[in-house]
Amino acid sequence: MASIRCFFSYLFLLLFAISLSAQSKTTAERLGYPAGSKLLILHADDLAVAHSVDTASFEALTSGAISSASIMVPCPWLTEVADYTKTHPDADLGLHLTLTSEWKTYRWGSVDSSDKVPSLLQPDGTFYPVTPDVATHAKPSEAEQEIRAQVERALAVGIHPTHLDSHMGSLFSTPELFAAYVKVAHEYHLPFLVVADAGPAFRSLFSPNDFVLDSVVIAGTGLQPGLTEMIVHLGRDDAELQAVMVDHVDYGAAWRQRDFDIVNSPEFKQALRDNHVILVHWKDLQKVLNQK
Hints:
Number of strands: 7
Distance between the termini: 31 Å
Radius of gyration: 20 Å
Structural class: alpha/beta
Strand content: 5-15%
């Protein structure tokens, strides 16, 4: 018996040492790049919110101007995105888990039945417009139920997500909502957006294999070594998007046209090359995460 106990003690220590060795690798090394590499996920939010957003994002994905995008499952243009995935099965598309509906006259509600997630909804049946309202009203159990329903809805229409993130950061607004987010990500074996400076209450929920981004930026220069996600919002400044985003200067139609023009510009692409930036994908993280 003593020899058996010694064997299992040795085996445990060996596995623990291997685990520590894996954890000591940088994200770049885990993805097969040198430790000091500047890795960038150039990512577009809000697919399915409008046809204009979809077509601009599809063009940028197909040309390689961006490396990733994420989908708002409760929004009306979901099936257009699903149709795109049929002809572009390698597209790096995650889910922009949605608990807010921010536009003035263009609104949406839950994927799950409204009677099952009432704390997420206003009296008119739509989501609250801003993240602080979600933090105040949402029951974590109902948030978990809704975001799981969004994943299942995506799968049902043929979308196989590469990662999860959170529209307007609503799932980052309380530790309890973040716990629901991490739980669902782990359940579906998906990497999820989180940054290295997350507080202890958030970091305690991670598994040793989870990827943690070094930074997330909406606009910025001088990328540092590590893994960064740069978020852009693409669209065309046309009549549809102007109507959807009426009275919104920030993230509105003109804003999205500018983002589209920038990521497609030769100057932007040259700046990435000059700074030795390597574009990577969420599906790269997903592959490593799910290696056995």
